[in-house]
Amino acid sequence: MNELFTSAFWSKLLESSIDWAINELPGLIILIIALTVMLRVVTFSVSRLKKILLKRAANDQSTDSLETEKRINTLTGIILGAVRIILFTVFIIMMLSKFSIDVGPLIASAGILGLAIGFGAQELVRDYISGFFMLLEDQIRTGDVAIINGTGGLVEKIELRTISLRDFNGTVHIFQNGKISTLANMTKEWSAMVFDIGVAYKEDVDQVMQIMKDVGDDLQNDPEFGTNILEPIEIFGLDKFADSALVIKARLKTRPITQWSTGREYRRRLKIAFDKQNIEIPFPHTTVYWGEEINPLKLSVDQKGK
Q1: Which fold has domain 140-185?
Q2: Low-confidence residues of the chain, pLDDT below 70?
Q3: Which helix or strand (DSSP H or E) is residue 236 part of?
Q4: Which of 61, 110, 233, 247 has the least CB density, counted as fewest CB within 10 Å?
Q5: What residues does 146 pair with on adjacent strands?
Q6: Which CATH class, in words, describes the domain spanning 191-276?
Q7: With contact defined as beta carbons under 8 Å apart, do 246 and 205 qualify?
Q8: Residue 104 confidence (pLDDT)
Q9: How close are the terminal C-alpha atoms of the chain, in Å?
């Protein structure tokens, strides 16, 4: 302890510091500069690669550019993250060697520790394996609308371990890849909006189906909404005899993610067309038969008399 107050100790410390600053500090500074440059180069290269791939996808008429863009965004994001991890790992190892720390035993210990963690963290390994095959099989991409384990929303981020999903209310849900039991992708390649249109029993079913088809054709020819519709509307016919309505089923096939806006516009136009043709859209009500004809007034008078 008394050595701290001797001039020889401080002279030796100063000499060692100056020697380290002369011999090791320049290398450390160069290492930090090299890491910064490499990170910028990698970021620029991945960004450039992304632009090239997106441009090729836009020029390729045989593929859906929107679908390809989702996959490119997902894969380039994962590549950038993986390269950054590798660069930082190499930087830390080289930095430790600059401080005269033997990294050999450290690497060996890390390998043994990693093996022990691998046996203990089976769930983590399962998450990474599931995420890898999810990306390899192109099951889901960033920007898709999906239902994961019963929760629906927009896929904001895909990583090898987790998937981030934001629902309609803005809540972000995080799912471990290894715990995903059900996954439904609602926006892969194409989407569709299914309509169950109910009309009164008194209406002519053939007339109603023709009106539905005409409205669908007009919507497909619309300059704003027509580009989102892939095929003419499909009218499947009378699907169900409901309690107070005849239900006619139809389907409109659209580009991914556009089915909801297109479906809302179709319903709006269909309501206007039904009003023009005096087609009744029923609501739940009860009809009482009195004798051989409907006479609600007579029923009301008889009830008052009783």
Answers
A1: SH3 type barrels. (2.30.30)
A2: 1-10, 13, 20-21, 23-24, 60-67, 98-121, 284-306
A3: strand 234-241
A4: 61
A5: 153, 185
A6: alpha beta
A7: yes
A8: 66
A9: 112
